[in-house]
Amino acid sequence: MLDKTAALEIRAVETPDDLKTFIRMANDIYADDPNYVAPLEYELLARLDAEKNPSLKGRPLKRWIAYKNGAPAGRIQALVNKAHLDRHNDGTGHFGFFESIDDQAVAHELFTTASGWLKSQGMAKILGPFNNCINEETGLLVSGFDTPPYVMMPHGRPYYTRLLETEGFHKAVDMHALQYVPRPQLMPEKRQRFIDKALSNPKVSFRTINMSDFNADIHRVIRIFNDAWSDNWGFIPFTEEQIEHMAKELRPIISPHNVVFCDYDGEPAAFALVLPDVNNITRDFGGKLLPFNWAKLIWRLKLQPVPRARMPLMGVVRKLQRKPVGTAIAYKMITMAQEANVSRGVLHSELSWILESNESMLSMLLDMGAEIYKTYRMYEKPL
Questions:
Q1: pLDDT tens for residues 269-281?
Q2: Rounded-to-integer distance, Cα 234 and Cα 39, Å
Q3: Residue 211 C-alpha from the chain's centroid
């Protein structure tokens, strides 16, 4: 921690005003970036509140703001995620919400402060960025800065890679975002024959989410997810409290066609979830809903076609993942979701994120006409 009389100072976030500064200082970092989308302040305040966000409850964390010559110049959060430690037992603490001006001294003080606090909590390694955990916004953008982020995906500045690597961070893993322009017919004829044959099995059936049983269906989504993703890098399962929170958050923006289920032999076996890209309709809000942007949001979301959509989650239970029927189910769900969105005015879509090691999924999506257009990197460093 630097002396308060120095030109560069690190201050802990302790008051509501500090937290607002923590949120708003990102707007200055991206003031000249036309692709930045300011998060809605009320939503981000809730995400940063352990009383409102179950992902933070009972998890030690600290936040700091860097000031240079009295003005906010950077920020960082450090967090000890018990759910991660319980599953992976790797002595790893997390950082997130990192933003900084292009100044190595600022980045150095932020990472030194966060690393020192994590070490004081008994951690042996620092890993991130996680905003706040792997099931929220994850990764540092390292390519694809020329387009705005989709909903629940981070943005970044190109110089962040240099700031982290100069501080001794190195790559842990890369994740890709793929884009495609939805088309009425995506499937090559040979692949379609394979799908039709595999799905002729009478045990296989498809449906969309039942809005009258919404919460129960969201629980089914997460049960499938917790099984399907359990071997993935960094995976931590959703808790019941997190599932209830997710159901409450998703309900206002989910339409029946945006969640596709597959049952196999009478049991939930796979799902695909699509979200309308709320970022696309709030880009001109500057993070504010008041006084009139709330009305614009409702009108744009409910009465206008949202031209972009993101598929953040898809999963097939592990027992079917290496079987032809499992592959066919994945193809079918993606096709059903994209056809439903095309018919409702969606012009561009993103599938994200997908681990660089998930070669089978990447191959399938590339075969369907998608292309990798953004890459996010997780960085780590021993303490």
A1: 999 999 999 888 8
A2: 25
A3: 24
Q: Which of 135, 95, 112 is nearest to 378 (CA)?
A: 95
- A 10 A CB-CB count for 345 gives 11
pLDDT tops 50 at residue 4: no
Helix residue ranges per DSSP H, 131-268: 160-166, 189-198, 214-228, 240-250
89 φ/ψ angles, rounded to the nearest 5 degrees = 50, 50
Q: What is the dihedral of CA 342, 348, 352, 356, to 10 degrees?
A: 110
Q: pLDDT digits over 67-98, tens only? A: 999 999 999 999 999 999 999 999 999 999 99
Determine the Cα–Cα distance for residues 116 and 122; give it in Å rounded to an integer.
10
Report d(CA 239, CA 110) in Å as an integer: 31
**Cα 135 → chain centroid:** 7
Residues in contact with 199: Cβ distance below 8 Å, sequence separation at least 6, in sequence order: 325, 328, 329, 332
Task: Report the half-sphere exposure of 356 (CA within 13 A, side-chain side).
Answer: 12
Compute how many other C-beta atoms are within 10 angstroms of the C-beta atom of residue 173: 16
- Rounded to the nearest integer, the mean pLDDT of the chain is 90
Token pair belonging to 202: 């009478």
pLDDT at 250 (0 to 100): 85
**Beta strands, E only, the chain:** 8-12, 61-68, 71-79, 92-100, 125-128, 130-131, 137-138, 140-143, 170-180, 204-208, 259-264, 267-276, 308-316, 348-355, 371-382
Of 217, 198, 211, nearest in space to 264 by CA: 198
DSSP letter (8 states) at residue 318: H
Condensed to tens digits (0 to 9), the pLDDT of residues 173-206 reads: 999 999 987 665 556 777 778 888 889 989 999 9
Query: Is the pTM of the predicted complex or chain greater than 0.85?
Result: yes
Q: How high is the pLDDT of residue 290?
A: 63
Residue 195 sits at the vertex; the CA angle it makes with 319 and 335, to the nearest 5 degrees, is 95
- CA end-to-end span of the chain, whole Å? 17
pLDDT of residue 2: 46
